[in-house]
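Notes continue from the previous slide.

Worked example: a multi-chain complex. Inputs as given:
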Amino acid sequence: MPPSDFDFLIVGSGPSGSHAAMEAIASGRKVALVEIGYSNNQPPPFDTSKTFSEIRRSDPNQQAYFLGDNPVTALRNQGRAGPHLTPGRQYMIRNMDQLFPLESDSFLPLQSSGIGGLGVSWGANCFALEDFELERIGIDPAGMSGHYTRAAAEVGISGPSSDDLSPLIANLDRSVIQPPLPLDSNAESLLRNYLAKRGRHHANGAFLGQSLLAMLSQNLGDRQANALTDMDFWADAGRSVYRPRYTIEKLRTHANFTHLTGRLAERFRSTPDGVTLECRNVESGARESFSARKLLLAAGAINSGRLALASFHDYQSRLPILCNPNHWVAAINLSMLGKPARDRRHSLSQLTVLLQAECDGPDYVLAQIYSYRSLLLFRLLKDIPLPPKQGLLFLRLLATAFTCVNIHFPDRPSANRWIQLEARAGGDILRASTSYSPTEKEWIQRYERRMLRFLTSLRCIPMGVNRPLHGASIHYAGTLPYAGDARPLTTAPDGMLRNAPNVYVADGSSWRFMPAKGLTLTLMANARRVASQAVRDLAAEDALVR
Amino acid sequence: MTNTPPQLDPVSPAEAAVLHIAQRETAPDFAAEFEPITKGFLFAVISLGALGCLAACCLVWRTLTRAFSGGAR
């Protein structure tokens, strides 16, 4: 048997890949991470000591970073990628269509070619799932708390030590959670209104609390506490908000870590002795192969699915795809109407709502509450049925009371939601289709109405609901799901891909359920769990040889 | 449909109007024009009520013009 180039090869640098690599490198083994890895290494293009309003009043160069080189594209893309994919973060979707071709009239996902994967524009909401949710995904809850703790320690999380949500989302070692950042004026008034009728809300199965965020309230290593300048959408000032590329930078300081950027993983060949990964160099077009004893797939559910189908030359099978349906609600907080708001705030989610739901057992519907300010008013103008001048006046009157609520619904596998590889003359392409049955739609509508009623009870009046095309939640999973039987294109309970010895599924591809609670922290913890299993397996093989 | 919507369409008049406002909103000289108006609850309610009536008229006008222009074709 020829010696392998590496002990572990990891595909993808997002939340899963970066944390799987961290776990593998801790074992002292030779680790390589393969990715496209586009980056934007520019420092924040503005004075990071100034708040959003100060910058607006004083910086003559602000158009360059607020609007970017092509404001028309930015304006048209905002419905697709969300306005938070600001010009400084657009590198993460560079060449997306060429690198990850996908064709669909019902599913429009975002795929990342940037270092850190979809974590480049992550909203930083953190959730440690409850045991019943992990079991439904297919993960054994035993032992997950240790992986959650290690992921949380790397990420740096701030949030309240105890509120109504803590038992539901923050079942974590308290020593890794920093104190919460202050709420903004809008969120403070909503929380006050909630607490005034807390008993009634609980009886209705509604819980509100401060969001648990991967955003520092105290310095951590070379990262700084959030300066509350409300510029978090525009750059990663002080590295206060966690991005997976920080973990990749740490990995690069290890002598036994190799970062293979500019490579698109196309196929793997696996044998009982090891794995060969075939890649295309995206600059030169040259084909390259790397060998390893173990391969960890962490390219995200869509691309890990694509890689598995291409490796098995399977153009027939349809893989399931999970993605949270998500709706945006524009609402007005009457308690803030006409009142000034504090200038010092952070821009990310302030509050989280959990509604108890019922669907094949207990479940939740989730909403994240944002106070709209630093993403600028012009983006909202096109949705207001007034001439621009009057529309602007309307928005200025609402500015401090304007509340954006992002509702996420859980997702389950269905024959109506799938991806499939298709051979074309110019190369393989993924086709996708997603639709919901009348019963599923009715369930979503019912809980949307409940969420709107809850918001109204906080004196936060919904003005309109935007239901973007499926895929806009940027949460994807379930293409190679855990299965107890030995069906092909599924994942065994130990994390190994069926019929592919030495190939492990380290990302959300293996999930057979997608909870409404954000998946990112669990992706990181699960990637660590799978990587540690691969490390143990390798050690066992070495012990056998000796 | 592919991953990214096509970007080659010409800029529509509505987009041009929004872009004009975007450029103004990101110029320090016009910052005051985009500051929140916080003159109290009553002022906000009365002003928003008036703008709401105007918005309703705009919607009716747009619906009518769309219906008639559709009929003309």
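Summary box: The two ends of chain B are 29 Å apart (CA to CA). The first helix of chain B runs from residue 13 to 25.
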